[in-house]
Design goal:
The structure holds 2 protein chains of 2 kinds. Helices cover 75% and strands 0% of the residues of chain A. By secondary structure, chain A is mainly alpha-helical. Chain A folds into 2 domains: 2-89, RNA polymerase sigma factor, region 2, helix turn helix motif (Rna Polymerase Sigma Factor, Chain: A), CATH 1.10.1740.10; 97-179, Orthogonal Bundle (Arc Repressor Mutant, subunit A), CATH 1.10.10.10. The radius of gyration of chain A is 17 Å and the shape is globular. Chain B folds into 2 domains: 12-72; 86-162, no CATH class. Chain B is 41% helix and 20% strand. Chain B has 4 helices and 5 strands; from the N terminus they run αααβββαββ. Chain B has helices spanning 11-24, 31-75, 86-89, 123-127; strands at residues 95-97, 101-102, 113-121, 141-149, 154-162. In chain B, strands 1, 2, 3, 4 and 5 form a 5-stranded antiparallel sheet that branches. The relative contact order of chain B is 0.12. The chains are: A mainly alpha, B alpha+beta. Chain A binds chain B through residues 13-18, 21-22, 25, 29-30, 32-34, 37, 45-46, 49-50, 53-54, 57-58, 121-122, 125-126, 129, 140, 143-151, 169, 172, 175-176, 179, 182-183, and chain B through 1-5, 7, 9-10, 12-13, 15-17, 19-21, 23-25, 27-30, 32-34, 36-38, 40-42, 44-48.
């Protein structure tokens, strides 16, 4: 029902209904913002949110409810825009989002735990998540923090469900090793 | 994870991630983002209204053009110099017409001309000296035939009224 509401709200917003847009924005902006904070940092997160909503407002007719929920569509759009932004700034290679590069190195890096030993566990976990390679970080964000199932996450990442599953397992292992001495 | 996870993390690990998710729940985009997007939505609304009005205007223009063309086709004839209008020649209501009076482009040569029946304010009669000057204030409309050359320039005009 909510998905249907979301689709209707989006259509009304695209026709210029401000109330519909405000409701739609308040429902979804936090998830996109959180995702953007983890994937490209808080400085760029506002821009990612703005670009994402601008994109879905202006590109009418692109949301297909049969292909997934609105939040998957929005996060997929955010991801696409974010990758474009990162590739333009050359801050991150797109390959890092699709391949398991430097996995062992990232595990063997000095973990954040020493630096944040006296901080609350939650900050350590956040730092550990942020230290994961992008491809693993985003499955943790989507599946663990945003509580998406494999199908939804695969929709966002535009990859097979099996890939989501294997990346998530690998990401958990890496996180577990990073956090082993804390939790 | 909400479903289909056969390899759940251990409870402590899961609890740590849930605590992180709960802490992240307070993260939100800057209010300026919503303000900027709402301005864009307002812009969309304005553009849609403009397009809607343009659509209505276009439809009206097409309709008027159709009417004008229709009356133009029915009014086409060669200038005859006679005082009888087409309807009079066709045996309908007899009309009385003035001679063709020159308009500003009357000096431009033309090969083929056609007349178009239009309605003009009665004040036009006064401007040709066919009615007293106080006629200029009248709201009454009168019919007129305009002689138009193949180049689209109006060469002459005559005023028409029912013969009875």
């Amino acid at each position: 029902m909510k998905g249907g509401d979301d689709a209707a709200l989006l259509e009304r917003a695209r026709r210029g209904d401000e109330d519909a847009f405000s409701e739609f924005f308040s429902r979804h902006q936090r998830a996109i913002y959180r995702y953007a904070v983890y994937m490209c940092g808080p400085d760029a997160a506002d821009d990612v949110v703005q670009d994402t909503f601008m994109n879905v407002l202006l590109k009418s007719g692109r949301y297909d409810p049969s292909k997934g929920a609105v939040n998957s569509y929005l996060l997929g759009t955010a991801r696409h825009l974010m990758l474009r932004r990162l590739s333009v700034s050359r801050a991150v290679s797109l390959v890092e989002f699709t391949e398991d590069l430097n996995v062992e190195n990232s595990i063997d890096h000095e973990t954040p735990l020493e630096d944040f030993a006296r901080r609350q566990t939650i900050e350590v976990v956040r730092a550990a998540v942020q230290s994961l390679p992008p491809a693993h970080r985003e499955v943790i964000v989507l599946c663990e923090l945003e509580e998406m199932d494999y199908v939804e996450a695969a929709n966002v990442l535009q990859c097979p469900i099996g890939t989501v599953r294997s990346r998530l397992n690998r990401a958990r292992t890496m996180l577990g090793r990073k956090l082993g001495r804390v939790i | 994870m909400t479903s289909n996870d056969s390899n759940k993390p251990d409870p402590e690990f899961g609890a740590a991630l849930r605590a992180l998710a709960a802490d992240d729940a307070k993260l939100t985009a800057s209010p300026n983002v919503e303000k900027r997007l709402l301005a864009e939505v307002r812009n969309i609304s304005r553009m849609r209204r403009r397009r809607a009005w343009f659509g209505v205007g276009s439809a009206a223009a097409v309709m008027l053009l159709g009417i004008a063309l229709n009356s133009w086709r029915s009014g086409i004839r060669q200038p005859s110099g006679t005082a009888l209008s087409p309807s009079a020649r066709e045996g309908r209501v007899p009309e009385i017409a003035t001679d063709f009076l020159p308009l500003p482009y009357s000096h431009v040569p033309m090969n083929i001309g056609s007349t178009v029946r239009i309605e003009v304010p009665a004040a036009a009669l006064a401007s040709f000296g066919l009615a007293p000057p106080d006629f200029r204030k009248s709201d009454v409309k009168v019919q007129a035939d305009v002689l138009i050359g193949e180049d689209g320039l109006a060469r002459a005009i005559r005023f028409v009224r029912p013969g009875n």
